[in-house]
Amino acid sequence: MKNHNKLNYTFLVIILIIATNYLLLPIFNINSAALLPHTVHVATTYILPWIFLYWFIRLVKAIESK
């Protein structure tokens, strides 16, 4: 139960940081409507393939060890 409370706290902090950044972006003349598609593009192009590769390598190693 203790880990569950810590997880809830972590998610609340992350949501608070994202909301604060979203509200402060117009102050720095950053278009917040264009930020989400750009972030999704960067994540799907550069970050997600590495995550997939990591888990695929773990799967192959687990299958080979059997």
From TrEMBL:
The UniProt record lists the keyword Transmembrane helix: yes
The protein's UniProt keywords, in alphabetical order, are: Membrane, Transmembrane, Transmembrane helix
**Membrane spanning segments where?**
7-28, 40-57
Q: What is this protein called?
A: Uncharacterized protein
